[in-house]
């Protein structure tokens, strides 16, 4: 038996000796030497950017990411700047402390003296937990273009990228604007990862809810992924082994592109229209921007309200396509809701809501949506719809029940102004609902 293992050992040795010297380079130096090289490289990289680093910081794997600016110097000093609602009360704050890179199971970046900006996430606070953040990080990789860190205690990934030449105020404002621009209005995006599709929504909160494409949103325990805005896109944080394995998504034209090719876009607008109703409960018409027969019908019905109510300030508040589980006794209904207000005979402001049951569907032809009238769904709608003196209300309903072509000015956030167009009207819908 010993002879057998000896022969195997000799065979392996001969194979190893036959390898190219380049392939052997890792074994030419000790583990301690390689570790020291990694430490030296990290020290060199961290102090190299002239403007420091933008830090895309995640306290833990369940919390949204925050933008910081950090600048290291070769004397072991670090300047950290932040501006956010959580730790600085939306005030620009800078603190200077010390840093070091030490060896543990690889190089560790530690902020080894207290820094009001950096340690705010790790402070236990009164509940003993605080924000469950880290101030020591495993350095997974370090180049002049990017440093990838992993929290030593809570395992969230943080990325450093060279900070551009701009003021901190401008930087933080640009990141905040990006979060609102691309993820505001309850925007829903489609993630294409290989042949798999997912919905992303609620991004303005800094936590994407992810659900399977074509499925309804989870009402309990949604699948969340934290995000952090950047100047050119955003970072989404989750484990390296996740099937949606990406880090940075950068803006390219009408989509975000991940580093290994996954794409985030608005997807098909007709599918978006239906999904938005399911997730956010509806769309509301912009009464100022809409044109054609719809705008004329709104104005005409408003004029009738003035004469019917003897209130020259009577007005249509909103026209919305919504979804409700409560308007009808049976579960689930699409609603065309027209809300208007006036002062009654007692000079008291009165708000009325006329609900109409409608059928809403996307067609086989991409970019189209069909809305058809079913029936008045509440007493106000029934009474006014049948009133000859309010004959402009049926005309208004008719302009919203048709087959529409969908388009959007902002391809990445169509929820700000999704246009429903037919041969008579352009109805501009924003991503909000009057049903709430």
Q: What do you see in this structure?
A:
- The protein has helices spanning 2-18, 31-46, 168-183, 269-280, 293-309, 379-385, 392-400, and strands at 53-58, 65-72, 77-82, 93-98, 100-104, 106-110, 136-142, 147-151, 157-162, 188-193, 196-201, 207-212, 223-230, 233-236, 248-252, 255-258, 263-265, 282-285, 291-292, 315-324, 333-343, 349-362, 368-376, 403-408, 418-421, 425-430.
- The chain has 436 residues and is α+β, with helices and mostly antiparallel strands.
- It has three domains: 45-165, Lipocalin (Beta Barrel); 169-265; 274-430, no CATH class.
- The strands form three sheets. It has a nine-stranded antiparallel beta sheet with strand order 4-3-2-1-9-8-7-6-5, with helices on both faces. An eight-stranded antiparallel beta barrel has the order 10-11-12-13-14-15-16-17. The chain has an eight-stranded antiparallel beta barrel with strand order 18-20-21-22-23-24-25-26, surrounded by four helices.
- Helix 5 packs antiparallel against helix 7 (392-400).
- Residues 1-24 and 239-244 have low confidence and may be disordered.
């Amino acid at each position: 038996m010993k002879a057998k293992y000896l022969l195997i050992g000799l065979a392996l040795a001969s194979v190893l000796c036959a390898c190219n010297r380049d392939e052997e380079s890792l074994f030419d130096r000790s583990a301690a030497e390689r570790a020291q090289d990694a430490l030296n490289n990290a020290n060199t990289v961290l102090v190299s950017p002239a403007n420091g680093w933008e830090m895309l910081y995640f306290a833990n794997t369940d919390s949204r990411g925050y933008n910081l600016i950090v600048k290291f110097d070769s004397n072991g000093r670090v300047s950290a700047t932040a501006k956010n609602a959580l730790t600085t009360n939306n005030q620009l704050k800078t603190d200077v402390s010390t840093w070091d890179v030490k060896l543990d199971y690889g190089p560790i970046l530690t902020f080894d003296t207290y820094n009001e900006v950096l340690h705010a996430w790790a402070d236990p606070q009164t509940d003993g937990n605080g924000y469950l953040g880290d101030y020591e990080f495993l350095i997974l990789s370090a180049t002049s273009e990017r440093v990838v860190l992993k929290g030593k205690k809570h395992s969230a990934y943080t990325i450093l990228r060279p900070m551009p030449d701009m003021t901190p105020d401008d930087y933080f404002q640009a990141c905040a604007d990006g979060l609102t621009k691309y993820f505001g209005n309850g925007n829903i995006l489609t993630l294409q990862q290989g042949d798999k599709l997912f919905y992303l929504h609620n991004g303005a909160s800094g936590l994407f809810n992810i659900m399977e494409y074509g499925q309804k949103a989870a009402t309990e325990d949604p699948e969340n992924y934290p995000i952090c805005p950047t100047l050119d896109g955003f970072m989404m944080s989750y484990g390296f082994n996740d099937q949606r394995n990406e880090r940075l998504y950068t803006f390219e034209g009408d989509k975000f592109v991940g580093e290994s090719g996954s794409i985030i876009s608005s997807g098909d607008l007709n599918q978006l229209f239906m999904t938005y109703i399911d997730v956010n409960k509806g769309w509301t018409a912009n009464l100022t921007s809409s044109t054609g027969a719809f705008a004329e019908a709104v104005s005409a019905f408003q004029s009738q309200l003035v004469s019917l109510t003897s209130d020259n300030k009577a007005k249509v508040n909103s026209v919305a396509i919504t979804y409700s589980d409560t308007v009808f006794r049976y579960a689930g209904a699409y609603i065309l809701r027209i809300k208007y207000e006036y002062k009654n005979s007692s000079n008291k402001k009165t708000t009325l809501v006329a609900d109409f049951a409608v059928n809403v569907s996307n067609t086989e032809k991409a970019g189209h949506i069909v809305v058809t009238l079913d029936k008045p769904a509440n007493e106000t709608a029934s009474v006014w719809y049948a009133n000859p003196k309010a004959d402009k209300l049926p005309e208004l309903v008719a302009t919203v029940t048709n087959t529409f072509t969908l388009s959007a000015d902002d391809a990445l956030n169509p929820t700000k102004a999704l246009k429903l167009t037919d041969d008579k009207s352009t109805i501009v819908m924003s991503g909000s609902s009057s049903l709430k």
